[in-house]
Amino acid sequence: FGLAGLPGLIAGVASSFLILRSVFSGIGDAFTELTEQQDVAGASGVSNARAVADAQRGVLQAQKDLIKAKEDEIDRIRTIAIEIQRARATEARATDDVLKAEYALQRARDVGTPRSQIEAQLALDEARASLVEAKKDTKDLAAEKAKADKNGVNGSEAVLRAQEALIDAQDRLAQSQATASAGIARQTKAF
């Protein structure tokens, strides 16, 4: 084995090193790609977890809003009941004022001066206007109460809107959870 075989040996060793370098380079590239995939998958997992957490907070807020809407509706119905009692009392007072004004006008016509008759007529007109207004208020409140009684707390517009918002929030949560589950499945398959 002489010096003549040395160039072939050097060439063989060099080509072996080149082959090993290619192999290790490919392994390095594979590790680099795997690391990048893990980083992307990890970031995706964190993003999905945040989306689920945000959706859960949205559901919780929608539940609180629904409870608040129901409480507000109960208060509104109670307030209407009180306002109806007040309106009926005001209407009764206005009816009594009309009767008093009619009596005062009759007395002014019997024994009063023309000026007292004018004043009594104006008082009667004002009492009648107040009675019309009181009757309208009572009628409006009675209609509002009848509608509230018919719909109940859960049928009010505010509660229905809050229920829709809760359903939307629950849908967003389900979608976030499905996205997160799909991401976990992809990560499991990839590794």
Provide an overview of this structure.
This protein has helices spanning 6-111, 114-151, 157-190. By secondary structure, it is mainly α. The chain starts with 5 loop residues before the first helix and ends with a helix. The model has no long low-confidence stretch (mean pLDDT 84).
Q: Tell me the overall shape.
A: rod-shaped
Task: Tell me the β content.
Answer: under 5%
Radius of gyration from CA coordinates: 43 Å
Measured distance between first and last alpha carbons:
51 Å
Query: How many strand units?
Result: 0
Structural class: mainly alpha
Given as residue ranges, the uncertain stretches (5+ residues, pLDDT < 50) are none
Number of discrete helical segments = 3
SSE sequence, one letter per element: HHH
Largest sheet: none
Helix content: over 70%
Overall mean confidence score, pLDDT: 84
How is the secondary structure organized here?
Blueprint: H1 6-111, H2 114-151, H3 157-190
Keywords summarizing the entry:
191 residues; mainly alpha
Give a summary of the structure in a few sentences.
This protein is mainly α and 191 residues long. The protein is built from three helices and no strands. The radius of gyration is 43 Å and the shape is rod-shaped.
